[in-house]
Amino acid sequence: MTVWIIEPRDPLIVRDGRPFGPVPGARAVSLAFPFPSTTTGAVRTRDGLDAVSRFQPSEIPRVKQIYVRGPLLVELDAGTGDVTRWLVPAPADALLLDLEPADTTRAILKRLVPLQLPPGAGTNLPEAMALVGMARRDPRKPCGKAPRYWDWGFFEQWLLDPHDREVPLADLGHNGPVRDARIHVSIRPETQTADEERGALFQTRGLEFTHLPEGRALSGARRLGLAVATDGPNLKPGIAPLGGERRLVFWRQSGKMLPSLPDALKEKIAALHHCRLILLTPAHFTAGWKPAWLLEGREGVVPSLRAVALRGCQTVSGWDFEKGKPKPTRRLAPAGTVYFLKLDGDSAAIKRWVDTIWMHCVSDGGQDRRDGFGLAVLGVWDGTFHRMEV
């Protein structure tokens, strides 16, 4: 697959579903990050353009078979515009706590683990699944500056060796695109002047794909973009609209590949016969939070689910251009969700299984996997259920 970079030229608006019409005081509010359906639709539309840049409806059956993985947030080189840093959503099995005395630049990173209930205790979790939390109580408050996106280098360490420690927040990552609010006024088409009689003011809130590290001058701002990997054969670099209000983005091919699977990680998972699976994009499962396709036997391995750490759910819909009507509303397991799995199979089979899952999509439906929902990576878990202390 080839990695393509989508760099917004203007603040990107990814509509959140609230009504937005030609009425005074209307607000177009953006999601915090695009769903895979937004970037996948853009990839397939661009791949299906003819010689004069018009999409051909006859191409719909073909482009729907194009695989897309992503989007992932990336930092871009100021000169070449290529990827210099991969960023991923913060995993749900990590908790940042404030230091005492307070330090706004550092925090305590705590690992959340499957818990063994005290004698006589029980839960209403299905299939005897375990709770996930801190094994030992910690009275410190959650960090108010916990980054929403982690640097890949730090995240890879978390996959290989998750443990409690003090961390500099700047090394961990940052909050990604910032919201940009703008006030607009309706323009009279006949005079190209403001329509002051109706008072048609409206607001748009988009995502500014720029990161300014704390304490840096404006000249030190870093360029951000979206990265997708796809097997689409007809993509071309250039500028095109994306999202609400048809804001412009630049498309260009990257010389980089998606982050690769560390050999040490594969060896550890094969030896432990357990692992964590972390979602990098939201996933759709028929049973809500619980996967089905992922738990099917393949490559000689049968996974079983032992615990899950997730932060609520996300809701997605959209417009079906093929059918000309809204898509059904669906609930998704959000990016950052962590599944704790037991792997039944020999070490060689587990290594093959790991290769088939790493940086692939694990949603239940085949079309959802092609659309980029449920992009996943794997991390170490030794299968231990920690004793819950009070």
TrEMBL record:
Pfam families reported for this sequence: Cas_Cmr3
Highest taxon above the source species: Bacteria
Stored Gene3D superfamilies: 2.60.40.4350, 3.30.70.2940
InterPro entries, A to Z: CRISPR-assoc_protein_Cmr3 (IPR019117)
The name this protein goes by in its record: CRISPR-associated protein, Cmr3
